[in-house]
Every structure is written in C-alpha cells, then in structure tokens.
From TrEMBL:
<protein>
    <submittedName>
        <fullName>WD domain, G-beta repeat</fullName>
    </submittedName>
</protein>
<keyword id="KW-0853">WD repeat</keyword>
<dbReference type="InterPro" id="IPR036322">
    <property type="entry name" value="WD40_repeat_dom_sf"/>
</dbReference>
<keyword id="KW-0677">Repeat</keyword>
<dbReference type="InterPro" id="IPR019775">
    <property type="entry name" value="WD40_repeat_CS"/>
</dbReference>
<dbReference type="InterPro" id="IPR015943">
    <property type="entry name" value="WD40/YVTN_repeat-like_dom_sf"/>
</dbReference>
<dbReference type="InterPro" id="IPR051179">
    <property type="entry name" value="WD_repeat_multifunction"/>
</dbReference>
<feature type="repeat" description="WD">
    <location>
        <begin position="222"/>
        <end position="263"/>
    </location>
</feature>
<dbReference type="Pfam" id="PF00400">
    <property type="entry name" value="WD40"/>
</dbReference>
<dbReference type="InterPro" id="IPR001680">
    <property type="entry name" value="WD40_rpt"/>
</dbReference>
Amino acid sequence: MTLPTSLPQVTIQVDAFTAIEDVEQGVIENEDIWISCYDSSMPSVHGKVAVMISDEDRNQCAFKGRDGVQCKRIQNTIFAVSCPALHIDNRSIHFPTHVITLPEVTSTKTSSKLDKGINNLDISPDGQLWVAALGNGSVLVGAGPSKARKDTPAPLEGNYHKGAVSTVQLVKPTTSTANPRILSGSEDFSLVLSEFPGFSSLAQVNSSALISQTLLPPSIRLTSHTRSVTSARVLPCGTKAISAGRDGTLRVWDLTPESTSVSRQIGMVRSTGDVAINSFASSFTRSASLAALALQSGHFDLVDVDSRNTLFSTSSAGFEYTRNGQLDAIDIYPLYTAHKYLVATGSQRGVISFFICTIDNGSVVTTNLGSCIRNGAGISDVKFIPLLKDSIGKWIQSARYTPSAKKFVTDAYPRLLVATTDGLPYQLQISQKSDSAGVQFQVTVEYAGGADCSPLRSIVWHDESKTVWVAGDDGVIWIY
C-alpha cells in the first residue's frame, strides 16, 4: 500500500495583514508577525518576520525573517513565504480582498451557534449575486462586492426549510425574460425551487441590520427523499434536476411547469451498498452526463445520469483501493482527451485522492493517480479550477503566471481548491513527474487571514474575476 504524499504547510498569524497595514499607515513603528511551517516527516519550524517601513521606499514595508523563515510581498494581499529547512520555496500566501459578514440571525429558544453557519455557497457567473445555505433552514441571496456601490445591499431571505440547508444553486434563466432561480436542499429531506425577482430587489440598506426582506415563495417543492438531502444540481437543460441524500439515492426530477406528476421524480439510482451519499459532483458534456458520488463507506461511484446506471465503483471486485474514512467531498472534471475524466475525492481523515476514469462504450477503466495529505484535517469541499479553452472550445494546457515565483507554469491537470475543517483552505497543483509515469502534488497557494480554526464547508472558484470564495461555520464569506 502506497502512503499518501505528505504536503508541507505554512501558517501565518491570522491578523498579519492588519499588522502590516498598521505599520504602513504609521499607526505603529514596527511589528513582528509569526509564521509556522509543518511537514509530518520533519521537525516544525516556528519563525518570526519583522515588519518595518522600508528605507528605500517610505510608502512600503520591508520584511526581515528570522528563525528559519523568510517573507516578501508580491502584490497588495499576496505574499511569498520560504522555509529552506522544509524545502518550501516562495509559497504564495493570499489574504482576503473582500469580506462579507452576514446579518445576525434572529435568536430563539431553540437557536444554535450553527444557525448562522454557511453550509454551501454559489456565485452567479457575473459575480453580482451570491446565495448561501444557512444552518437555520433559510436561504440568503446577496450582492457581490462592487466598486460602483458605496453601501452593500442587505440580502434577501427565504425561509424554505425546517432543517439546516445543505446545498444551494443559482440557476441561470432559461430565457432572456425569465428570472434566475434558486435550488436548495435540506436536512428536512426536501428540495425547493424558487424564483429570484432580480438584482433590483436588493434594497440599499445596511447589510449589518437584521434581515427584513424575503424571497418569493417556492414554486416547486420536492419531497421523495427519506433522509437528509446533501447535494443537488439543475441539469444544463434547465428542466431537470438531480439530488443525492443520506438515504443512499441519487434522484432525477422533472422541473417543467406543465408536469402532472405529484412527486416529479422521474428516475433513481441507489449507491453501491445503499450507503449514504455525502456529496456528489456532475459533469455534462456532449458525450456523457455523469455524476460522481462520495459515499459514507469511503468509496465513490460513477453514475450515468441519462441511463440511471452505475458505471463504476471503487468497491468493485479486483479494483485496488484504500479507504481513508468516509468521503465528504468530490469533484469531476472532463479532460482534454475525449472520454477521460479526472476525479478528486476528499476524506474525513484529510486524504485527497485522484483518479482518471476512461469511458468506452459503457465500460470504465479507472487509474489511481495517487493521494496526498496536508495535516489530517477533514476535507469538506473540493473544486477544480477550469483549464483554459481556445477560441473553438478545445482544451489547452493552462499557462498560469505564479506571482511568488515570477514565472509562467504550465498545468497538465486542473488545479484543485480545497476547503478544510481547520479553516485553512489551499490550492493544490497536480503535475506529471519528469522521470516516471506518476504525478506529484504541491500546495501552490495557502489562503490565510480567514476563518482560522472554524470549519469551512464550501469553496467556489469564480472564473470571470479569478477569485476564490470560501464560507463555513463562522457565517462569513471570505473572498481571495
């Protein structure tokens, strides 16, 4: 059995960016910030960086590391940290560019600290809207950060569920005159489809106030699941949806207004072993409509949504597979080679595993690329960052400029965003080894200054603005 690759980790004082700003603005003359670096196979390094006004440019800070760490500024909120003892060279450290704090949740006798927690998050393609799934059973829709607005509008609230909302999706309008829709799923076993009346309905009032605005009543409620709903997505056609739950089922729904079915369920697939589906991810291409299911048993299934058939399971006889606790996170990505898909899974024990699934005439050949672990904190969400396409839609290798290294890096595989239960998200690069057929893993970005020790539940890549949105139990949306 091959052990997961250990990933060195950099942590930095959570309010380091505030301390640096205080020095820049002359509030304080200088300050020390701490940086710690870890690797499970080597002794930890705990150093400090002195922050002071630069002698060369009095408008900038100078950084002087000691005790085994070095730090330099790349851009306003981006820094590079090095720790030679642990072979960490110019690791990018990103601090938030925007922070969205949700309004206070109304307190009741049955209130819990988890009521304000964000279990899931979605962003509109233009970044103008976000939707959050809250622990108190409500859905919030708010405005994204904008330079054109001085005040942030208060979000709208939909009290659609009697249990915590576990999944939300902003659904694109099917016509130019239609309104956006919101699909939500909950621990109360139900799903709700509702309309969002439009951006103009967000009134210009202080976002820190208690929420007084409400969303429209739901247009469709789906109630066939017998346990908590964990994930749900509307299909690209806009007239169907799929959902998964702890009842071990993946269900297909009819969303057409003219449907005469009471339940609207038009299909169902059971997980291998009838175990709970903790999460699923989907991929819809011209050749296939697939769902990858993260199972509580520690396995994953690959399902053909159109035929309602399970194409592959890691529990299949003869497939060499090591379970690392239950799977809580999964994503699937179509590669530039036809019929090949990259699957990433994240386990409760902090192990991320990668697989290539090749589909040929209904059969699947799966190759295990390897696995990695950073510090053992549970993986709560994973999302691939899409590779670039050319003008006619063909995949091309992505040449990314890495600010900390000041060079372009070509990626053969998409990078992976990782949300963790220790509140310290990161970005992972997968690259082909030059001397063998294997792959190697490297943390390219650590997202700092955010939740810090408060569990994260959702991480989202916004392609247009090239930003990362993170949310979790603290009820705050952090944007990098």
